[in-house]
Amino acid sequence: MGHPLATTVAQGHAFKNIIDGKQVEAISGKRMDVVCPSDGLPFGSIAASNADDVDAAVKAACFAFEDGDWSAMSAVDRGRVLLKLADLINQNAAELSALESRDTGKPIKQGIADIAGCARYFEFYGGAADKIHGDTIPIPGDFVALTLREPHGVVAGIIPWNYPAQILGRVAGAGLAMGNALILKPAEDACLSVLRIAELALEAGLPGGAFNVVTGTGMDAGAPLSAHASVDFVTFTGSPPTGTAIQQAAAVNNRGVTMELGGKSPQIVFADADLDAALPVIVNAIIQNGGQTCSAGSRVLIEASIYDKFSHMLAEKFSALVAGPHDADLDLGALISKKQHGLVQGFIDQAQSDGIELLAQGSIAGNAPEGGYYCAPALFGNVPAHSDLAQKEVFGPVLSAFPFKDEAEAITLANDTEFGLVAGIWTKDGARQMRMAKRVRAGQVYVNAYGAGGGIELPFGGFKKSGHGREKGFDGLFHMSTTKTIVFNHA
Ligand code: ADP
To answer: Do 314 and 306 contact (CB within 8 A), yes or no?
Structure first.
């Protein structure tokens, strides 16, 4: 304990919603505790909002979009506001990282990386705001046809607890750059950085109703937001069942959605790979954020001839991993909540009682507070292909290893889950790199690399149950806008 950044978070602070540029309590006056995962103790509170607060936020967003300053602002000026916000986030990075880290339990170094990533989204999308444009289309006759890229209007962003600031960056960066007005509903388990960044957005010059934040539970605040008749588009990152519920709610109004719903991403290691280079990347891809990452590399498929050697290398690394309090800045922090801890531990216990081979397990720091939600990272070997460990998203620091005999079997195993978000391919054979990259069903494929979380510039999203639509990069701008076609008759 005792990282200098840990002291910057005020104890007992009562965080409020941000609606129409003002900090407001929930209309009901209800609040809920903010719990630090490192010790399980409350250290602040947030507004416990319901449909009335959602309605107020949607009204503010409608006004900002239809009548307010935001819709009238030029693309270049919108971009400038976002660049200013990027600067403000960087200037306040120490405070924001500490807030993110305490709120989520992630090590301080991860909090710092997340806030830098958030700022970079606003920088990227601020720079892109005036560089996206339509086409002219040749059609027969005396006509000129052209397209405009127009914002959806009022966009609801329902975001999860694992990377609040980064996911805020990709949703709000792209959404605001295109001129939409937003209502964000962060997860009840982690929303403090989102509230603080929304304040900075006002300071950067964003008109009030263009960026509203409503906190509360999924049922009380998220469900009415996704079903609201004045919301034009919904973007969601989270679990597949909640994604289904949100799509059903939005379908009642026939509104569009983007869904980023997690994965069971494979790392495929061939015998000719540079194993020393692969090892730290593969370990990090499951340990980062305690494995609570949609794109975590949670399966490692190893060519049979090196299975014993490479699983032994992985086991050595896993045995040395230590989980501890966020401000001790160790390999991984606590999991987000008691509920998540129970789910992850349940997978580990079930695998052990099913006789799946536990190759190695890390440890929990001796000074970790009793009430924290710590989980020792676990590596399982020879995992049966149809077990829960092989098929389900654990969303914790659990890596499953599988041997394969050739490329065909590697592809079968890699594609044999309901998900398809990210894949890593480790081989020096150039032709095989391309064959594998084309055949693996995943929205992002890394060759001799693995970007858990992907880059800001890279389109990101899934195949199959991992969702649809794309975020990040220029694709994020396309999904936050729609095409209007205009035809002039000049006969
Ligand atoms: P978890 O179960 O790990 O909390 P979810 O995918 O359910 O993950 O949560 C992601 C986000 O979705 C959170 O902001 C949460 O409050 C919200 N949410 C949960 N249930 C619903 C729902 N039925 N409708 C809308 N939003 C929801």
So the answer is: no
Return the CATH number of the domain spanning residue range 266-459. Answer: 3.40.309.10
Q: Is the CB of 467 under 6 A from ligand 1?
A: no
Q: Is ligand 1 within 6 A of the CB of residue 160?
A: yes
Going from N- to C-terminal start, the domains of the chain cover 4-261+468-485, 266-459
Could you please report the per-residue DSSP string of 166-186? Answer: HHHHHHHHHHHHTT-EEEEE-
Q: What is the pTM of this model?
A: 0.96
Residue ranges, the chain, pLDDT below 70: 1-10, 452-453
Q: What is the CATH number of domain 4-261+468-485?
A: 3.40.605.10
Instruction: Return the sign of the alpha-carbon dihedral for residues 122, 128, 129, 134.
Output: negative
Distance 56 CA to ligand 1 centre (A): 21
What local confidence, expressed as pLDDT, does residue 77 receive?
A: 97
- Identify residue 165 by its one-letter amino acid code: A
Q: Is 260 a catalytic residue?
A: yes
Ligand 1 center–CA 282 separation, angstroms? 29
CB-ligand 1 contact for 445 (6 Å cutoff): no
Q: Is the dihedral of CA 450, 451, 453, 459 positive or negative?
A: negative
Our answer on whether the CB atom of 226 is closer than 6 Å to any ligand 1 atom is yes
> Considering Cα of 252, then 254, then 260, then 266, what sign does the dihedral take?
positive
pLDDT at 68 (0 to 100): 80
What is the C-alpha to C-alpha distance for residues 127 and 156, in angstroms, rounded to an integer? 23
- Return the ∠ at Cα 341 (arms to 297 and 402), rounded to 5°: 30
CA of 239 to the centre of ligand 1 (A): 7
